[in-house]
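Hey, can you fold this one?
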Amino acid sequence: MKTPIVTPAAGAAYHSGVDDVETRAYAKVTRRLVPFLMLCYLGAYLDRVNVGFAKLQMLSDLQWSDTVYGLGAGVFFIGYFLFEVPSNMILHRFGARRWLARIMITWAMISASFAFVSSPTMFYVLRFLLGVAEAGFAPGVILYITYWFPSARRAKVMGLFFMAIPLASIVGAPLSGWIMEAFAGVQGLRGWQWLFALEAIPSLILGVTILFYLDDSIASAKWLSPEEKAVLQRNIATENDGKVAHQTIRDFLADRRLWLLTGIYFCIVMGQYGLTFWLPTIVRNAGATGLWEVGMLAAIPYGVALVCLPLVGRNSDRTRARRLHCGVPMLAAAAALFALPFTDGIGTALALLSVAAAGALCGTSQFWALPTAFLGGMTAAAGIATINCIANLAGFFSPSLVGWLNDFTGKQGAGLMLTSGMLLLGACLVVLLPKQAVDR
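Sure. Predicted structure:
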């Protein structure tokens, strides 16, 4: 029997066919998963940070200080910290579909309960329970993305996914302002009470939808052809062969890169939430009048971030310079927040807030291209969750410290200086990451 002769032309045709299948497969996966996951994260982020708008009425109604609000906003992350690693391990072991649905349904119910808060203690308890309910969602989705996309394609997808954060603010800021004005007094409830009740509904609907829409793996995706599944599974398997899979907990905890990454993300989260929880207040203090105007103007910085996220992600995948695309946006955000207290006027404030929002969110999205480049398997599940849960303690410290500093100094600029300094520190830490491990 003669061995078939493969001519150069035939070989080129073969590879062209494989490339066509691969291109078609990733386009199909992106269309199927990314918009839906963005929508889910939009709901998650909206329910997490709408307290920033509720604050504009709630504090005066309930006679609370900035310190009470800051502690309540931050205590969410204590519950998040305690339950995030177990949550991600459960997701990896038993599948994303049912676990992500459980997360969304429970947090929607708790978020709606904030409409009935009447004391600081009740506020703290509900914020803690919201953190427990939501624990594992963001790292779970990040882990889920690694099941479908190799590192060479992941920065762009992360950039698209994290567009949900500015979208939540673009949609949520005007919506929140409108709800608080339009529903004030309806059925004897204040506008901020209606805000919590109504904005929990999308998360509840999406949580139920996950059960029917998501697939746990490439193999279970009926909407992919056998050829498309084979290409996707081959790419993931090839990449996983070169990744770290720690054999023991000691090996896992001894990996210095893990703790360096945690420190970097802690700084990013300090900056991100320092901006998110206080942006409506900054806009109002800069000269905006009325809740609707505050909501519309607060959406502008996130509109700028929305444009920047996919551009930065696409360029990161093209150049593979992961550290550069994480660190430079953080430096830009730090500079903008540092300059903010020294400026006057709503126009200048919005320009600086736009740079800060774009920088902080681009830094967030591009950060997750770093650990997923070298962690695989159960180590990836544990590593992503560990980094996220410890770093998200910054979500507790950031609003708490900013609120305390604002009350202590009587000036909004003190908290902004803290936020700026943490972003600068994080950008410096990015340089310490080994280039060969993450720039790939």
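Residues 107 and 115 are 14 Å apart (CA to CA). Let me know if you want another pass with a different chain boundary.
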